[in-house]
Amino acid sequence: MIRIAIIEDSQALTSVYRNFLSDSEFEVILFNSTVSDINRLIKHGGFELIVCPCFPKFQNGSRIAQTIKADPGLTNCAFIVSTSMQQDSVRSEWDLRDIDAVLLKPFDREGLIRTLKRAGKNQPQNVRQTLLALIIDDSKAVRNTLASYLKALNFDCITAPEGMQGLRMASEHLPDLILVDVEMPVMDGFEFCKKLSKGPDIKHIPTIVISGTINESQFRKGFRAGAIDFLEKPVSQPALAAIIESVSVKGNTNSTGTTVILSKDNTLSSILSKALNFLNSSINVCTTFDEFETFLCVSTPDIVILDLSENEDKLNVCMKTRKLLKSESPVIIAVADETDRDIMFRCFKYGATEFIIKPFGRDEVKARIENHIKIKKLQDELVQKNRILESLAYKDKLTGLMNRRYFDKALKDEIEKARSGNTHLSFLMIDLDNFKQVNDAYGHDIGDEVLKEIAAIIIDNVQGNAVSCRYGGEEFCIIYPDTSIAEAVKNSEKIKRFCALKPISGYRIFQTISGGISSFPETSSAEDLVSDADKCLYKAKKAGKNRIIANIETLSQGS
Description:
This protein is an alpha/beta fold. It has 4 domains: 2-122, Response regulator (Rossmann fold), CATH 3.40.50; 131-251, Rossmann fold (3-Layer(aba) Sandwich); 258-382, Rossmann fold, CATH 3.40.50.2300; 404-550, Reverse transcriptase/Diguanylate cyclase domain (Alpha-Beta Plaits). It is 45% helix and 20% strand. The chain contains 20 helices and 22 strands. The protein has a 5-stranded parallel beta sheet with strand order 2-1-3-4-5, sandwiched between helices. Helix 8 packs parallel to helix 9 (216-225), helix 17 (435-442) crosses helix 18 and helix 18 (444-461) crosses helix 19 (485-501). The longest helix has 33 residues, at 362-394.
């Protein structure tokens, strides 16, 4: 078993990882991105692979990677970043020296396992600047010629003289593209494609068949075996370049992640799968709606194809699908018979993006889907960039906590939730004791380190759905939803104790804090909550500092 640590703050994604990696060769242990959990990961040790989100919730990703790899037992582990962004965006957020591979979201089970295996072999998938091609031909001259052509197209190349060795190399190296000759001894190119299509980790690798003579019979045989296109000998570099561009090999930014087809008709599913080869999409077929519903719970497809031709309640299928997808916006293609054309127009109202009437050809499928995919990619990029901008707008750059702008909105929102749910809410305002003296004695750079360490202690000791913010300067605050004032005092005391006991920045600075706590519904507005907590904070300072005072009474004394 290969031991893998997955750092993930999203419960939905941890569920996806569990489902996709169950019954696999990977032993999975899950962690979140808090300082305490990263320390737990390091203490646990023994991991060969570590997966981390591009934007962890609790601390900077590169910092996590550097902290983990600083441990002697984890120096050589492969570090994989999961993201829905392309490489240039990842480069702007991470030091690529910290990354061994990138896992692009959304992903299916095969894509996840393929990435993990490649990273485990120290063959980074998306970080490397070139793609990898496997050339299989019994002629050394042909292998060398094709390799020279592919290197000019920014490929690294590995070669094999026959099919069995080619299969072993495909499993070992997981190339982005395979070129295989038809006429070879022992195993011909068609047989190679058939065997390749049965390997769970290698069946999705695009394979181009090369032959001295290509006729209709060979076309049929090749496509049935799993080939995606043909090249006729002698192969020219322009022809090779054109065909590679058309098939969109893995790693190309034009590829899409996952397609799911809901259909009882195996023939239709097979035709659609072949027609969608140009997308380089992982194809998943569900024959029942229950199976389809389960799939949507663990994976977010880019393309959904609904075969409505054998379904009496066509509009309801569209409505249920849209409801299952919630805020996601895949391309939804409805397939139906000519007699259902009128209903198809009504399907647009219930979430369908496009419809296809049977019978249809490969070119029609490509034409109807291609533009929708381009539009979706632009929309997804815009959504991702907006999320990044929003994250930057609401985060304090120094500490990584949420900032005052976020706090003002969050406190009002949490009060409304508490009011409508008839629950308690507590609020803590923190101020660092004698912080001006630290800045005067050690300088502002060390002062900044103190602020970051205090923020890390807060992050590490706040549980559940509490919201931690830097209020401004040396002031921090915590919103405790659904928490009584007694529980808030208990947690605040814990934070105060850790701050006082932990030396900071190697200068033996023991930074104490004082805090004031107010509560809802005793105090009914955001402004009054802040004001009451501030008054309690003032009392704590006046009473000697290094203490927490609540608005109902003094519940804590300085140690």
